[in-house]
Amino acid sequence: MSDLPDEIPTFDTAKFRQVLGHFPTGVVVVTAHGDDGPVGMAIGSFASLSLDPPQVLFCPARTSSSWPKIRAVGKFCVNVLAEDQEDVSRVFASKATDKFAEIGWRRSGNGSPLIEGVLAYIDCEIADVLDGGDHEIVVGRVQDLEVRHEGGPLVFFRGGYGRVTY
Ligand SMILES: Cc1cc2nc3c(=O)[nH]c(=O)nc-3n(C[C@H](O)[C@H](O)[C@H](O)COP(=O)(O)O)c2cc1C
Q: In this structure, is residue 79 part of a structural domain?
């Protein structure tokens, strides 16, 4: 006879995804420009963190191939996507080798790719990288920021894209 319970409780990851998917987020593309060219990834886990000092955060997965390249550069640009930029989000959520091939962009003040048509951008240098389980928590010190367009944001909710009515 064993003292072990009949069923070993396992964490329900599908339920975790389903429940957390009910929290809507905006979508940003975090970019950097390394020696090998521009890199970028779509991010929903972006947030404002601190006013003094001015800091923001995002959480890249440890499996991301773009994040180690961004980390090596030491600075990045947060591109806040507009409601008509779903195609841009899809490109930067992919594993495409040249995500910038069909994207209009120029260099921001800190040298990172600033994507055409974004609502706003925030240039940062990496201030800290903290443990976040299978993700990391990146704290960025804000260097420069600007609103580019007064439109509606791209929103991600329950696994799909949407817009805000306001
Ligand atoms: C709306 C949306 C939000 C996302 N948010 C995150 C995120 O917060 N962290 C993350 O690591 N990946 C996130 N992803 C997935 C990454 O964009 C994707 O896995 C990554 O860019 C894959 O390419 P890489 O290997 O070049 O990093 C998100 C994707 C989408 C569509």
A: yes
**How far does residue 147's CA lie from ligand 1's centre (Å)?**
23
Query: Does residue 126 sit within a domain?
Result: yes
pTM, entire model: 0.95
Q: Which amino acid is at 45?
A: S
The owner of tokens 């001015």 is: 54
Q: Ligand 1 within 6 A of 66 CB?
A: yes
- The H-or-E segment that residue 13 falls in is helix 13-20
pLDDT tens digit string along 41-88? 999 999 999 999 999 999 999 999 999 999 999 999 999 999 999 999
Q: Tell me, in angstroms, the distance from the centre of ligand 1 to residue 88's CA.
A: 12
Q: How many domains does one find in the chain?
A: 1
- Tokens 């806040």 identify what position? 80
The domain that holds 115 is classified in CATH as 2.30.110.10
Domain that holds residue 114: 26-163
Task: Tell me which of 30, 46, 59, 64 to substitute to probe ligand 1's pocket, judged by most ligand atoms within 8 Å of the beta carbon.
Answer: 64
CA 153 to chain centre: 14
* Domain-embedded: residue 113: yes
